[in-house]
Amino acid sequence: MKAHRLVVPLSAAGARLDVFLALALPHLTRSRVQSLVKSGHVRVNGAPPAKAGQSLRGGEHLELEEAAPPPLHAEPQDIALEVIFEDDDLIVIDKPPGLVTHPAPGHADGTLVNALLHHCRTLSAGSAAMRPGIVHRLDKDTSGLLAVAKNDAAHQALAAQFSGRTIDKRYLALVRGWPRRQSGKMEGPIGRHPVDRKKMTVVRLERGRHALTTYRTLAQLEADCVGLSVALLECRLFTGRTHQIRVHLKHLGHPILGDATYGGPSSGVTPPVPRQMLHAWSLALAHPRTGDLLRLIAPIPADFAAYLPRALVLAPGQESV
Description:
The chain is of the alpha+beta class and 321 residues long. The N and C termini lie far apart (53 Å). Helix 1 crosses helix 2. The strands form three sheets. Strands 4, 5, 6, 7, 8, 11, 12, 13 and 14 form a nine-stranded mixed beta sheet that branches. The longest helix has 12 residues, at 152-163. The chain is 17% helix and 26% strand. It is globular. It has helices at residues 17-24, 30-38, 112-120, 152-163, 223-226, 244-252, 302-305, and strands spanning 2-7, 42-44, 61-66, 83-86, 90-95, 143-149, 168-176, 183-186, 190-192, 200-202, 213-221, 230-237, 278-286, 293-297.
């Protein structure tokens, strides 16, 4: 049990208790704070508050007790995988949309890691018991290439490439509207949204981390094709911030189709959008043991290809649209 003790500044007078605590303790979401209030783990001036939304006056002494989450351990599960490359050191998967990368609260099993443990038997130790082999991640509803380390030496070599920004990661995104420039650079620092802690946003540099994404327009689809004007972009990641491409494209004014979190349209499009239209399409890296350059492509999935003219849909192994 970890206790947090805070004094409410006078400048916070009028703020809701749950909002103030979520801002003061960025690792806690507002819903998590509300749950802790409901379970009696928050006190205001020594007494439980009447409700999570009570208004603060300033000067209150707050205490929040944060119970440690139960440890998670990933177990092997027989879940089908689309393997793009595999040897004794490395496996690269074409992750389908809807599959969570590793176990976490709310997703104790049925994840990519559970599938990998069944397929590979051994993976690198990773950063935690529920993340063996995981060097980088894809959001649940993002499809495409994800590289996984089978041993610790491979993990260290891949992690060094990611931190050194020598891995070439390219994504395909379907976005609302046509960017004014055919290509460009998006370099806004990314940090937690000040109100909705489950979201990220472009912030001042001192409140976030440097993030760099470049894009180029591959195709512009007329409104009479899919229901509204849509552009197909290739985005290249130079940093690996949470939700980076999704946040940068929203900031550019062209959110990804189906991305409800960041304002991407899901209605008015034909066919209806089943998920965020973001696909980790291309990955180029040095093999962790030999140093040989690997260039890998994940074919465009059917739900993504449904919005594209047939001539634009990639066949396996092609590198350009």
